[in-house]
Amino acid sequence: MEHTEHLSVEKSIATLQDKLSYNKTYAEKATKAGKYDSIQEGQHPDVTIVSCSDSRVLERSLDDEIGKVFSIKNIGNRVEPNLGSIEYGVGHLHTPILMILGHTGCGAVHASTKDMSGEHYRIIRSLEFIKPTVGEVQKLLIRKGGIASYMAEHPPTVKPISEEAYFETLVTEANVDRQIETALGDDKIRELVFSGKLMIVGAIYDFKDIYSTERGAVFVININGETDVAKLKALKALGGDGRVILNQIKRLLVY
Ligand SMILES: [Zn+2]
């Protein structure tokens, strides 16, 4: 026991050393390049993002400039426990976009589709909110003739995937939709959207080749609660040269 503890402390120290040494180089480079010169006195992000804590989901994939992304992370990209932080981003920093970013291969979604009774109670409490969404998607699939026939009607666009991976992707999309409903349930956020000052964007970060072969690509699945792809593509706000957005609108779950 003592031996194991000793080893784990060594691992922690080595990891800390590694991170601090990386940070030293990082800070040197950031200072030399003047990365903080114009934002030392204040931040001006243009997007507030709620994404999953999963280490593979990078908000930097949308903008790697320091000070542009107001980032909130938790397992399962939940809105409810972070409404205060979201309020700060959209209400005080006035970002015109609030993005709820789910992702393929999400452990929180996977766990929610399984028996969670063996998990720590805090994890159970954090993920309990996805459970009803799992049930909702199951009911929807029953209504549509089962998962096999649904998959045949809405085939994965890149390569064949298992029913389990497909189902979890549907739950991931439904979870993003539910989080947007929660955000729209907040008076202040709803008022910002209603007055056109804020757009809530639901999106999926994909590195499992489910939406495309570009690993780390972000796909829009919901705008201000609208989930109909044809309607999303026809949105007036997407007019003009909106081709980039149009090509990035894609979803598997059709209500
Ligand atoms: Zn996740």
Automatic annotation (TrEMBL):
Binds 1 zinc ion per subunit. Pfam families: Pro_CA. Keywords: Lyase, Metal-binding, Zinc. It catalyses: hydrogencarbonate + H(+) = CO2 + H2O. Its cofactor is Zn(2+). GO terms for molecular function: carbonate dehydratase activity; zinc ion binding. Its EC number is 4.2.1.1. The keyword Transit peptide does not apply. The keyword Metal-binding applies. Zn(2+) binds at residues 52, 103, 106. Belongs to the beta-class carbonic anhydrase family. This is carbonic anhydrase. It comes from Methanocella paludicola (strain DSM 17711 / JCM 13418 / NBRC 101707 / SANAE). The lineage of its organism: Archaea, Methanobacteriati, Methanobacteriota, Stenosarchaea group, Methanomicrobia.
